[in-house]
């Protein structure tokens, strides 16, 4: 169960007020923390719990819910052969979160991609420019309210095929 | 002497950039000072499209990312969906998946060695490796009808059983391929030009490799002993015996050796899978999810309705989120799927190994000569289709 997971146990001790939720689904542990403490939590996981490899940084757009975005980090511990998922909610009004580039260089490109496709700003990122779309592109394609068939089209409401 | 920085565009038409990659290289003489990669604009929009298709309809999109290893992409995806559903696939399906995945690794690594050697100037290896790759493509055609976009795995198992005569063909590959690898090594490992262009080139230490999130053979070439097949096994890999090769000097030559040993180990895994293969079901006992057998579709109205329902409506997947990573020939290929309980993924994210590996190119190439950059791009084994999904 999630309560017994070593990461959850330690995080509950150290970051009791930053920890919003923790759960286990299909054997995977997910920890949701406040976005203000995301860097501290990631640093603690990296240095003290040996989750030394940042696999992925991405985001999910829960359009219509508040907070709208969820930034998702997948951490891997190479010495312990273990994974943990860290999530931080980001509101539409204040669409920004601290950049993890200070901890991992991996975050550089992955955060640029999340910025490009979701429009989430990563504070203190060294080079936050678009990476998949051209520099002058308007809009963020992976947002749920961005039309599937491209700009200037009605949002597609039915099925594709 | 005062020096002046020159900016040079390498690609997208340069033969060694393997696709739509453009590198803006800043040079001091011939020494690389800075690299700004511009990746792609291929824009198939696979992540966005999958939010509007059922789980089965999303599957063919995944082949098209890493077009050198389509079955690995399928494997990661179906495993992620199966994990989300909580279903287990039969033993035979698992073995066939492992066998096809390792054949795919051979196929992908053969293209790597061919192109890498050609980039550096060795043409014979290029011709030989592509000749051998054809044999694996024939097997693809036998099982799926397509030589490249396989779409052979299904959520819950396989689309059909192995055709007659398949196992003999695989056995031929198992018997002959180690000899071919000897040939490549004979052509390259003692070749002075090859050695001079790979040894000490593109060095990245183990700490830096982890810091940059490099995975797969490039990570192991830097001396990190980690392989998802062995350390976080999936699809029954825990029942196979194989070595995980690790490099020492963290350079292009080590990554070359790691991949060559990996090909030999793949052949061993295929051999073991072939020996374990027994007749049995190839689809999980999950009628909500799996297509019915073709005989029942053609001969009974219930089967036809069942097939039609799955093909048009798909199946609901319980709410939740999973991350499933497989050891793609390029590295850790991860699928992060969020389900809201409907018949389409709410969000599907692909963690692309080539994309992350390419992020380290400036670190690896800074201070090298421009000519070495060609070898460094080749050693990363990037596929632009996967970088710009």
From TrEMBL, chain A:
Species this protein is from: Geomonas subterranea
Subunit description: NDH-1 is composed of 14 different subunits. Subunits NuoB, C, D, E, F, and G constitute the peripheral sector of the complex.
Record family assignment: Belongs to the complex I 30 kDa subunit family.
Bilayer topology term: Peripheral membrane protein
Stated name of the protein: NADH-quinone oxidoreductase subunit C
Record bears the keyword Cell membrane: yes
Keywords, in A-Z order: Cell membrane, Membrane, NAD, Quinone, Translocase, Transport, Ubiquinone
Top-level EC class as recorded in UniProt: translocase
UniProtKB/TrEMBL annotation, chain B:
Domain of life: Bacteria
Pfam family, one: Complex1_49kDa
Top EC category: translocase
Topological category with respect to the lipid bilayer: Peripheral membrane protein
Residue ranges of domain NADH-quinone oxidoreductase subunit D in the record: 119-389
PROSITE patterns per the UniProt record, alphabetical: COMPLEX1_49K
Catalyzed chemical reaction(s): a quinone + NADH + 5 H(+)(in) = a quinol + NAD(+) + 4 H(+)(out)
Keyword DNA-binding tagged: no
Residues making up the signal peptide according to the UniProt record: none
Keywords carried by this UniProt record: Cell membrane, Membrane, NAD, Oxidoreductase, Quinone, Translocase, Transmembrane, Transmembrane helix, Transport, Ubiquinone
Residue spans crossing the bilayer: 109-130
EC number: 7.1.1.-
Job of this protein: NDH-1 shuttles electrons from NADH, via FMN and iron-sulfur (Fe-S) centers, to quinones in the respiratory chain. The immediate electron acceptor for the enzyme in this species is believed to be ubiquinone. Couples the redox reaction to proton translocation (for every two electrons transferred, four hydrogen ions are translocated across the cytoplasmic membrane), and thus conserves the redox energy in a proton gradient.
Subunit structure: NDH-1 is composed of 14 different subunits. Subunits NuoB, C, D, E, F, and G constitute the peripheral sector of the complex.
Protein name in the entry: NADH-quinone oxidoreductase subunit D
Gene: nuoD
């Amino acid at each position: 169960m999630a309560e017994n997971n070593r990461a959850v146990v330690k995080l509950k001790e150290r970051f009791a007020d930053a920890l919003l939720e923790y759960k286990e689904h299909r054997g995977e542990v997910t920890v949701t923390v406040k976005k203000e403490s995301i860097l501290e939590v990631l640093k603690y996981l990296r240095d003290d719990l040996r989750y030394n490899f940042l696999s992925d940084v991405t985001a999910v757009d829960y359009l219509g819910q508040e907070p709208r975005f969820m930034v998702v980090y997948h951490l891997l511990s190479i010495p312990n052969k273990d994974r943990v998922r860290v999530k931080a909610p980001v509101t539409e009004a204040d669409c920004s979160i601290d950049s993890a580039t200070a901890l991992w260089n991996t975050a550089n490109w992955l955060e640029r991609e999340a910025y490009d496709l979701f429009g989430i700003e990563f504070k203190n990122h060294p080079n936050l420019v678009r990476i998949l779309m051209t520099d002058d592109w308007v809009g963020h394609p992976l947002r749920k309210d961005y039309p599937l068939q491209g700009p200037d089209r009605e949002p597609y409401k039915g099925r594709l095929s | 002497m005062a020096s002046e920085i020159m900016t040079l565009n390498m690609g997208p038409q340069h033969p060694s950039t393997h696709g739509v990659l453009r590198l803006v290289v800043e040079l001091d003489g011939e020494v690389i000072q800075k690299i700004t990669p511009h990746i792609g604009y291929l824009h198939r929009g696979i992540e966005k499209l999958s939010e509007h298709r059922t789980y089965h309809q999303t599957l063919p999109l995944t082949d098209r990312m890493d077009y050198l290893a389509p079955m690995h992409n399928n494997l990661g995806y179906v495993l992620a969906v199966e994990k989300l559903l909580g279903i287990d696939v039969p033993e035979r399906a698992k073995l066939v998946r492992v066998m096809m995945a390792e054949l795919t690794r051979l196929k992908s690594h053969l293209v790597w060695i061919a192109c890498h050697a050609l980039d550096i100037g060795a043409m014979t290896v290029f011709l030989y490796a592509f000749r051998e790759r054809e044999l694996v493509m024939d097997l693809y055609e036998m099982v799926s009808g397509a030589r490249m976009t396989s779409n052979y795995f299904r959520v819950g198992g396989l689309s059909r059983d192995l055709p007659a005569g398949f196992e003999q063909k695989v056995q031929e590959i198992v018997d002959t391929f180690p000899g071919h690898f000897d040939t490549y090594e004979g052509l390259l490992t003692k070749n002075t030009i090859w050695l001079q262009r790979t040894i000490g080139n593109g060095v990245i230490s183990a700490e830096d490799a982890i810091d940059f999130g490099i995975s797969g053979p490039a990570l192991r070439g830097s001396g990190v002993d980690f392989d998802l097949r062995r350390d976080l096994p999936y699809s029954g890999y825990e029942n196979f015996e194989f070595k995980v090769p690790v490099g020492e000097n963290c350079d292009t030559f080590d990554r070359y050796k790691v991949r060559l040993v990996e090909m030999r180990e793949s052949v061993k895994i295929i051999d073991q899978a072939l020996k374990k293969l027994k007749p049995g079901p190839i689809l999980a006992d999950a009628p909500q999810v799996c297509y019915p057998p073709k005989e029942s579709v053609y001969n009974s109205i219930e089967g036809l309705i069942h097939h039609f329902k799955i093909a048009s409506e798909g199946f609901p997947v319980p709410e939740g989120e999973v991350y499933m990573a497989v050891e793609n020939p390029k590295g850790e290929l991860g699928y992060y799927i969020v389900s809201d309980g409907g018949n389409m993924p709410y969000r599907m994210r692909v963690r692309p190994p080539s994309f992350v590996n390419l992020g380290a190119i400036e670190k690896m190439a800074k201070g090298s000569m421009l000519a070495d950059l060609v070898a460094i791009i080749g050693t990363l084994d990037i596929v632009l289709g996967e970088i710009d999904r």
